[in-house]
Specification:
It is found in: Cytoplasm. It catalyses: a hydroperoxide + L-cysteinyl-[protein] = S-hydroxy-L-cysteinyl-[protein] + an alcohol. Keywords: Cytoplasm, Oxidoreductase. Its main location: cytoplasm. The chain has 430 residues and is mainly alpha-helical. The protein has one domain (10-146, 261-429). It contains 19 helices and 2 strands. It has helices at residues 4-10, 14-29, 36-48, 53-65, 81-84, 87-95, 102-109, 118-140, 176-189, 193-222, 224-245, 294-305, 309-322, 326-332, 336-350, 361-366, 369-380, 387-392, 399-429, and strands spanning 287-288, 353-354. The protein has a two-stranded parallel ribbon with strand order 1-2. The chain is globular, with a radius of gyration of 23 Å. The termini are far apart.
């Protein structure tokens, strides 16, 4: 199954994989402020910003299994306004997180029929950052690519029988208790293939029914000939809208295909990463970790509003920092901690986050040009990554070492997004 691609890559570092799976499971399947179907839809919105079909398809199926309304899969126009209002910070966090302000937070939390609670918003922000960063890993390690033109083929069908992160990695140090819980949840919530077919067929029938009614109405108003022509066009457009969002019908092998066009899940598709403007005379633009850090500020806030997630995220950040990288560092002629910090700080620097106690001249000394190009591409516009980039950078390094770099990218990027979002929430609360 395609799902195994991520866990196979992370399996080179089993301790990290275990920590990742616990966080993933908690975010998506354990008690929390957000309904389960909304969690998966937020993940779809986040993954679509980077055109990550791998993750979109995964969460489309899990959204349906969680009882989500299939109509939502036609695009943002068909979801509740409350969820659609999340689109703005999804877009900003994915590409230019330094633009997040307390006004964005206030707009979502304002008293209205569609307002968010602080706890719900924190859960949503963590989900967005998690999926944006995971999209970087998916592209960075080549999980998205197929044999298509330019290394970017269409996503292969996903098997309904293999959708659990934990089940896909039973041999990779995932705790037995977590496996047991996730398997039970899969059995409890899984929609059978026939049910999925029936669900989508119902949408198709309802669509045809509405088209027929519209056709009859137009016949009466505009005359039979003209009305039939317009009605037929309307029906075609309506059906094309449906297929543009999702067409999860089973093929002859019993597998289900997913989203065919991700544009329906996002607005302002041209909004992307821009180099952070580093102007020494304008110190207000730079995010200084000394003023707001994960350890001193972000951790306590997120843990207070979304119980225990702070501990899981903190464990994951510490786990990636503790991974062995002696071989990588030795090849670069430095200590492991120095090498990893260079990569981490370089990623944060691209998002305008600075450490006063770090000499950024070290980045150019530690990281060769091709490595920096690769890191920037995977971090800032992962959808432009192709499998050849992964194969060509760092030819002297092992595959597991390249995966290690991608794990550093995943965690550094996620922490960067969280720092900006949590700081904005803190400023709103103050």
């Amino acid at each position: 199954g395609r799902l195994e691609a991520v866990t196979q890559q992370m399996g080179y570092h089993p301790q990290y994989l275990d920590s990742f799976l616990k966080t993933q499971h908690y975010l998506m399947h354990m008690d929390g402020p957000l309904p389960f179907d909304c969690r998966h839809y937020i993940a779809i919105m986040a993954a679509a910003r980077h055109q990550c079909r791998y993750l979109v398809n995964l969460h489309v199926l899990q959204f349906l299994r969680a009882g989500g309304d299939p109509q939502w899969l036609r695009g943002l126009e068909f979801i509740p306004p409350k969820l659609r209002n999340l689109n703005e910070i999804n877009k900003i966090l994915a590409h230019r997180p330094w633009l997040i302000t307390k006004e964005h937070i206030e707009k979502l939390l304002k008293i209205s029929e569609w307002s968010w609670s602080l706890a719900e918003l924190v859960h949503a922000v963590v989900l967005l950052a998690h999926c944006h960063a995971l999209a970087s890993f998916v592209f960075g390690c080549g999980c998205e690519q197929d044999e298509g033109l330019g290394g970017r083929g269409s996503l292969k069908p996903l098997s309904l029988g293999n959708q659990c992160f934990c089940e896909a990695t039973a041999s990779n140090s995932c705790s037995q208790e977590l496996l047991r819980i996730n398997r039970k949840r899969s059995l409890d919530s899984c929609m059978e293939l026939d049910s999925l077919r029936e669900c989508m067929q119902r949408i198709h029938v309802e669509t045809e029914g509405r088209d027929e009614m519209r056709l009859l109405q137009q016949d009466r108003e505009e005359g039979e000939g003209q009305g039939a022509e317009v009605g037929a066009q309307g029906g075609t457009e309506h059906c094309s809208d449906l297929s543009a969002g999702l067409s999860p019908f089973a093929d002859t092998d019993g597998e289900v295909t997913g989203a065919t066009n991700l544009a329906c899940y996002m607005q302002d598709p041209d909004f992307g990463y821009q180099d952070f403007a580093r102007r020494d005379e304008d110190q207000t633009q730079v995010f200084r970790v000394q003023d707001y850090s994960w350890e001193d500020h972000g951790f306590s806030l997120v843990n207070r509003l979304y119980s225990d997630i702070g501990h899981l995220l903190d464990e994951k950040f510490r786990m990636v920092d503790g991974l062995q990288s002696s071989a990588m560092a030795k090849r670069q002629g430095c200590e492991p901690s120095v090498f990893k910090r260079g990569i981490w700080n370089y990623i944060h620097c691209m998002f305008g986050i600075r450490y006063d106690d770090y000499d950024y001249a070290e980045v150019n000394q530690l990281l060769e040009r091709m490595l920096k190009v690769y890191i920037k591409t995977v971090t800032c516009y992962p959808e432009k990554t192709n499998s050849e980039m992964f194969d060509r950078f760092w030819k002297q390094f092992k595959h597991s070492e390249k995966v290690h770099v991608n794990l550093l990218i995943l965690e550094a990027r996620m922490q960067a997004e969280l720092l900006y979002a949590l700081q904005a929430i803190t400023q709103y609360m103050i």
